[in-house]
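Quick one: examine this chain and its backbone structure tokens and tell me how the chain folds. Here goes:
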Amino acid sequence: MNDPVVTQLRQAVTAHGAALLQNPAQLEQLLAASAASFPGKVKALLILLDKKAVTFLTTWSNDTRPNKGSYEQVRQQIATKFEQAKLLSATAATWGLDAWAAALGLRGEASAAAPAPEAKAGGLSLVESETAPAATPAAAVAPAPAAPAKPNTSAANPYAPPAAPVSDPADEADQSAFIPGGRGVAAGRGWSWFAEGWDLFKQSPMIWIVNFIVFMLVFIAIELVPFIGGLAGMLLAPVLGAGIMIGARAVHQGEALEVAHLFAGFRERTSPLMMVGVLNMLATMVIVVAVFAVLAVFGVSVLGAAAGRSVEALGIGLMLGILIVAGLSIPLMMAYWFAPALVALNGFTALEAMKMSFSACLKNVLPFLVYGVVGMLLAVAASIPAMLGWFILVPVWMASMYTSYRDIFYDE
């Protein structure tokens, strides 16, 4: 089977050897060419590597015991564990294990009837026969060779990618399917996003508030930098925004929220996230230039108004500028809204993410209208107790951005 993801994985392993198995971030960069077209497959490979399933597979391959179990047995048990943990579907895990076995050129002469070994690697536990000796711990097993041999491509090779077509696996957190371009939802969902955001917030309220405070302090510090503070803030906003989305996803998956989640965007997908900031900055500059250009063409009398000759002309010019800013800023906001999440969580490029974000927002004008009205009402309520309510409202609003992303882009 000529699977482009498997081909790229094999090339990466051949070029970088065993060291690549200890560096998931480097592997993700090497698979960037496939990430846009097959984000689920790439995620499946990375999850299997991160959760030590690949290490366990190499441990099995190097095991010389005659009763260590067949590859099919081991693969089935690993896939079952990942499905039970809701990390990957059995189909996605099976495909990923076959891909890794093919890329690493794993070999093992195992009896098909022999029981699988017991071993633990990153929380993965497989059961063996009571008479079988314990397998060598994963940490003590020699890593895959730096230059693995090419796998046997014959039809009998159990390590080759499956011949049947395999669809792109679902998001690693669950079995729900990603919807490219998003879907339209009911108008009432605009309120539900806040309600579901509150559910995420109340699971770790103090950490949410701390992350909000740290977020604000970081941006204040950036803005105070002379000359470049404003530009730096626009470049780094998507990176920190992606960290918020990664943290919200962790809470959604039942994990604990951490302050470190806020800076997760600086550890992975940093370049495409900053590119979102670059595109946002360029679009903002276009808006500013457009406002001045229109005022220069149609608002010549504004200069006279500024000198006191026509207050009415000044008012018309300012109103025209406001309309231009609003007319251009709203589409930009639509393109930006989901972009950090799509880049960080789904592996899209900056331009792809912004196009998809705009398309998704366009399909959900009414829900976002309800969302905006509810947000304004909550803002008024949060302002009453000496603005203290904002320490709760803003984190809930951040969480609601994730819940809106899940609602629109996933078939739950």
About this structure: Residues 4-172 form one domain. The longest strand covers residues 119-121.
